[in-house]
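Sample intake — XdhC family protein
Collected from: Nocardia jiangxiensis
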Amino acid sequence: MKMNERALQLGRTRTPFVHATVVRAQQPTSAHAGDEAILLQDGTIEGFVGGQCAQNSVRKAALGALQSHESVLLRVLPDGDLQFPEAPGATVVVNPCLSGGALEIFLEPQIPAPLVRICGATPIADVLAELCELVGFEVERTVAEATVAEADSPDSPADTTAVVIASHGGPEAEMIRAALDAGVGYIGLVASRVRGASILEGLGLTDAERARVRTPVGLPIGAATSAEIAVSIVAQVIQAIRKGGLAVPPRPVQVAVEALDPVCGMTVTVGPDTPHLTIDDVDYWFCGSGCRTSFAAAKTGS
């Protein structure tokens, strides 16, 4: 599968990843300018941006980029003096396992857009869906009667940023409870102050849960029409993301772990292709095949 096709596939499944591109390479490194790879949250590398020693440095920097949501220009240099053009603002890693050469790799994290689930088939819900898409959010529409069941469905997105209930009736309390149990950080209920308070009172929420539910929903701009109410809701969701720390929840993944190479002392980010040995029921990971071979020889005496 081509790299752009794989990126589109990951985007459709809302899977975070890092797109890595070699922008400069110095021989005798095996990578070349233009080489590409996709790095996943579990440390998997799909593509090629250098040999095993370089991959360890790239993998560690890529996982950091996924956490910070910021692009990184990574310079991977061998141990010792090397004449390699400077790149202001780049992150420099000295990798003693490189056999020579140097790499400069641009790491660009691809984070899914906030996903807003809109419950209901009302004029407010219709306009809200249009506005959410206009500002770059991903939208999922559900009708009130199906929402509770779909919230527990394994096919439903597990990384919902916000849920807005604009059904003007139906199982609103059940929908709020389902969203709270799913860990959604922003839950909005379109209702009057009196009706909204009555629904929440019957749920017996904790203070922390109550803080996640907005009703009346939206910023207080004096909105009266369906379009104005939708504008106030979108503005409040944006405010919660930009100023309130509301994040795009990550999908559950097997997070990469780190280990210490027993030969060279490098910190190795363990991935599916990390060189590995098990001796006397003890696991060892290595930065490259050279360290693994040396360690195995020392242990076996051969």
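Post-analysis note: Residues 146-156 have pLDDT under 50 and may be disordered.
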